[in-house]
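[09:14] KT: can someone run the structure on this one? pasting the chain below
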Amino acid sequence: MPPVRLIRWELILAVLVFSIGTCPRAAEPSPVPAKRPGIAIRGIYGGVPSQIFDRGRTLDDYGVNAIWIGSGSVDRERVEGLKARAKGLKVFVEFNTLHESSYLKDHPDARPIGPDGQVAPPPDGWQGVCPTHAGYRRSRMEAFRRILRSAPIDGIWLDYHHAHASWEQAQPNLPDTCFCTRCLSEFEREAGVNLPDATTAERARRLLGADKPAWVSWRCGVFTDWVREFRTILDQERPGALLGTFHCPWTEVEHNHALREKLAIDLKAQARFLDVLSIMPYHARFGHGDDPAWISRQTAALGRALGIRGQPGERIRIWPIVQLSDWGEPVPRAQVRDILDQGTRPPATGVMVFVWGSLYPQWDKVEAMGEFYRAIRP
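[09:31] RB: done, structure tokens below
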């Protein structure tokens, strides 16, 4: 039998005190500011928050002064009714640009083509459309014009305005597209590059190799030209309304320069035609669930890249859309205040929460959102 060792309680107490004093403490939640007058927009994304009305409350009770609804929900009666019910409310619309997959049913030639010359399968179910398909582009521009004519909306936000990909997750799925005959012909003509008379696979290897800078620049230009046309239509149909875009939160160097080289997003070029950039830093979804400060870091990086400081009078504004609802990874109620604090730091001048449809069943989060929104409003 081993000898019994006597342990002095004074020694145990000393060890415990030392351990408590040296263990890292959990980060304290961000304090709620008394006012944050630079934040003009305190929004909800994802439809009409009728559950607030059903409880006999108003949007003002929750500090909300803007909502984003889908383009399929837009009509004059609904928008005017919402504005009559909530004085000063801004109603914005989300508009799908390159992800209207129903178009492909009758137009299979609009499917993106991969570097092997075959139809590129939808990555993780996210089906994109070839950006040079004239019929598809025309149909989206016509739909855009109809929405602007249909109701007195305050602005419209482009959504899914990127190449065929699935990036809204911690590990993105980013195939190379589109190498259809139409895209290759337009690239040769507009970029002044002569491709060899070879198979699609051989041409794609060159476009992803020696001719990659020209190819990337041209593809980004195609997507930017869509934004230019959207701007022209908006100015014709509803001058004074805002043109915004929901977009990937990466910097230009992250994921091996995927913002430009995979998604064909050139924010510097698109910004000429936009009023608001709504970066999408879904911290939990993107693998930063324990680091809400990632939100403000990505927003600040965007501001530096585009020279936006969040000052009064700037033409271009940054209004992040931040994740409060669970999507893949849960977002605890205790994080709500910190998430909104990070989302409303300069250069942001507005913020909205994602996404009402799955947020309202977690009413404790809604109440936390309202507490923060009420505290920061002028």
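[09:33] KT: thanks! Confidence is low (pLDDT under 50) at residues 1-27.
[09:34] RB: yep, looked fine to me
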